[in-house]
Amino acid sequence: MMYRKLALLAASCLLSVSAFATTYDDAVDATFKNDADALAPLLAKGLDPNTVTSSGAGEPLLMLAIRKNANNVIDLLLKQKNIKVDQPNTLKETPLMIAIFLKDNDVAKKLIAHGAAVNNPKNWSPLHYAATSGNKEMVKYLISKGADVNARTLRGITPLYMAAREADADTVKLLLHAGARKDYCTNDELAPYDIAKQRGNSTEVQNLLKYDHCR
């Protein structure tokens, strides 16, 4: 009798795992296809909208949808009461950061309206990504929403450093005007000016970034 119960329990577990795998695959497929009509019933049956991919960087469905420009799925996921709008992948990137890097500013603003954090202390932040991609509209918008213009990663990298690295004079000017520090250096004692000079960026950018010493 005991063996029979164990066998039934094992069979039940296998069926549960199989059912979850099917649901997971269907959810990912619906997200990739921007098929909100296919995803909605899965969510109604209890699928966690924060489900992450089992491979790669472990990205939540919301992040996948952003990468695939799946706006119908994005809207559906944001309507879920238990959606974690800031859920990161294993690289500590948030959905907002991905939207900004891809210059999908409408989605980025939608995420912020749903409570997405504009700061990510001690890690790469949305403003870092906006500066890196030269997304000037979002640089302005993030600052208006309280983004820390001098946010530093664990390696001491600031948004201004990334703008200087990419030789984007307009973004450099925006950040400086908002109070970005030219003398905030990385752990390797490289200031924004140093990386701009190292990469042979324009004289205009270098002149904007001249500083006295690291802080």
Automatic annotation (TrEMBL):
Record flagged with keyword Heme: no
Keyword terms of this UniProt record: ANK repeat, Repeat, Signal
Signal peptide boundaries: 1-21
ANK repeat start and end residues: 122-154, 155-187
InterPro entries per record: Ankyrin_rpt (IPR002110), Ankyrin_rpt-contain_sf (IPR036770)
PROSITE patterns: ANK_REP_REGION (PS50297), ANK_REPEAT (PS50088)
Keyword Signal: yes
Domain of life of the native organism: Bacteria
The protein, known as: Ankyrin repeat protein
Species in which this protein is naturally found: Parasutterella excrementihominis YIT 11859
